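subagent[fold] <- orchestrator: predict structure for attached chain, return tokens only, no commentary.
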Amino acid sequence: MKKWLSLIMISSLFLFSSTAMAQGNAGKLKAEGNGKSAEVCGAIPPGLLKALDKVKNERAKAAITANIEKAKEKCKKENEENQALTDVQRVAGDKTALQIGFIDGNRADWVTGAVRLPVTGTNGSVITWSSNKPTIISNNGLTVNRPLTADETVVITANLRYNQATASKTFTIVVKAVPASMTAEQKVAADLAALQIQFNGTDKADRVTQPLKALPGSGTNGSAITWHSGAPTIISNDGKTVNRPVSGSGDAIVLMTAVVVNNTASATKTFQLTVKQQLTDAQKVANDKAALELDFGGSDTISRVTRPLDQLPASGANGSVIIWHSSAPDILSADGKTIHRPAVTATDLPVTLTAVISSNGVTDFKAFVLTVKKEYTSVEKVAADKADLNIAFADKDSAASVTKPIGLPSSGYYGSSIVWHSTHPSVISDNGTVVTRPAQSTGDVTVTMMGYISHNGVGDVKLFTLTVKQLPQ
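subagent[fold] -> orchestrator:
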């Protein structure tokens, strides 16, 4: 763990030398001359400039300024090394790094829209492209004509040139055919094949103990689905009611039949389910004891308790009643909702939570020995908040596919402050509330979000690499 100021400089230097290069021209500019392209030192990363603006201490400013100069010298050295590359080395490097890009949802074996084909390499090579089936995919990749009958395999060739040095690289992609219209019989068959029953908890077809998950009323191809139970007093037609046989009477076999209809076409599918007989009280207690676990808050574990527990169960899945007791209620309450951690100068403390599990006079116990951690120092708070730190994404978004604003926490559970910076604020704003997606056919953009975590002068940084998807066709 390092001091806050040192970490700002270290993370910023890291961004200056590596992340910026990975993001395109952030931190470096292109210089043209004699038909060649060479990288020269350029802009200072925004995060470092912001850190410099915020620092008031003159010695700290001098330290940051000195590190900026060191970064520039490093950049200059890299430029000199880059300029020392031979033409053959430039082309070889660009060939190795060369990749093609796809629209949302596409990949090499599933292409339905335009393909992004770079026209220059990072070392300055000029790239021209050719398609072996230009009527399916144009040479520039912008026009894709999907076949009407079957998928088409297309080979796209990149020809790289730097002065007299040349190389080529091929990419094989599959252009998907336009889906043909389906007959009613085909729709029924497809919906029938995809049809399944979903169960709750740990239930499965040969072990049903509780109501079924909602039975589908329609298929993805538009078929209507109705359900019929072979024993509606045990499982209702809609699956919402399950009456288990009494203990000692044996399990029950129930046939659930789905009727799938689309226009005049229809078909049926039958599922055999086994409804388990009710348990004795001793079995209920034993099963509920075996399944009983604690649900910890955040990233806590049984050997590292720093916050209240999530809800402690008051009953088991089989109906047992569960009552909890704490060996040290002044440290951790019996319901797990209140925690008083030892002082930072004290030691960690063990606390035993005991569950009393009972059903109609049958009782058993299950004990959990937890370690309640003493209060954290600033260094430990920053480390814990860094470990917990994550970005919240909109529905269906992820780090690899960002299309909407993101959620960036401004503080950690343990009290650290969190400040965010974006390497591409024109694509994702520093606060994450504005996301500007690249235009069609221009390619996705990689953005690094930097979270600066600090507490009482101690700090650390956590980086998240996000891909902002280009606008769809």
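orchestrator: received. Logging for downstream: The two ends are 47 Å apart (CA to CA). The domain at 281-375 is CATH 2.60.40 (Immunoglobulin-like).
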